[in-house]
Amino acid sequence: MNLICIGIITNTSGINGTLLLEVREKNIFLSVGSPLYIGYSDNYTEKYILNKELHFKSKREKITLAGIDSIEKAIPLKEKAVFIEREAIQQENPNFVYQGDIIGCQVIDISTNQPIGTIIEV
Fold it and tell me: Domain 3-118 classified CATH 2.40.30.60?
């Protein structure tokens, strides 16, 4: 499975199990039922299902997961990373470019067709 990190759960919101996610990748859409993998690394995750569609537009988003319906169930997920399968992002977001994929790419001046540098950080 090819997982990429889309954010970190920083806190809970309210008492119904809603989680606050600090977003790493913006402009992603995920539909209800999308599988998310939560854990401290991509090798040690548990699978959860998204309860509500989500548009990652800001630095922090609220997410709700199936089975996480109380603050007591949400608290153990704090400070864990949220991963999604790369293929799932591409299915729902065909024009999405993962930031890590452009590191090392050459930048070309379109008016002169000359290289002007290499992307080293995003």
Answer: yes
